[in-house]
Amino acid sequence: EYSRLLLSNASGGTGVANIIFDLLDPSTPTVIASRALPEAAMGRKYGEYKREFEAANPLCNLIGILENTGNNHSIKEAALRQAQKTPDVKRLVENLRSVKEIRCNSPVFNPKETYVIPEGSMAIVIETRNNGNHHAGESDDRPHVGRQAV
Questions:
Q1: 121, 70 in Cβ contact below 8 A?
Q2: Could you give the angle at the alpha carbon of 73 between the alpha carbons of 69 and 77, nearest 5°?
């Protein structure tokens, strides 16, 4: 599945295959990663948090949110408990249906500024490891995204 998606994306844009390869290659300093969010980020608007995060971590880019992180069973169990907190039977049925449709570890890339960060989310970031490795033949002055704590 990944190979098929990579091939289709690579044919549609210049350098896409190289971009994806470098982000996934453990020997390159710049990587895509998920990081824990502070409790204070939950329920906040993405745009506000992104600005705050990037001001505190100028060399690290927040590129999205990973929703419903963790154990599939635990996530659905917590959502089920929350869904049952209504006396309205029609709303209860709708809530129970939505629990069934929960997708765990679901990435939301580049959400709108008004997107509200849900409970149980993590940050998706592009960061640079401190090992200083880079591909042979590349200069040290190529732009990199810095590694910072989220």
A1: no
A2: 95
Residue 120: how many other CB atoms lie within 10 Å? 17
Instruction: Say what percent of the chain tops pLDDT 90.
Output: 31
Which tokens go with 109? 């890339």
Q: What are phi and psi of 74, to 5 degrees?
A: -65, -40
Orientation angle between helical segments 72-83 and 89-100, nearest 10 degrees: 170
Contacts of 103 (CB under 8 A, 6+ apart): 67, 68
pLDDT tens, residue by residue, 59-108: 789 999 999 887 666 666 666 666 667 677 666 666 666 666 767 788 99
Contacts of 92 (CB under 8 A, 6+ apart): 83, 84, 86
Q: Which of 88, 87, 106 is nearest to 34 (CA)?
A: 106
Query: Which residue in this structure is represented by tokens 């949110």?
Result: 65
Reduce the DSSP state of residue 19 to 3 states and report it.
helix
pTM, entire model: 0.69
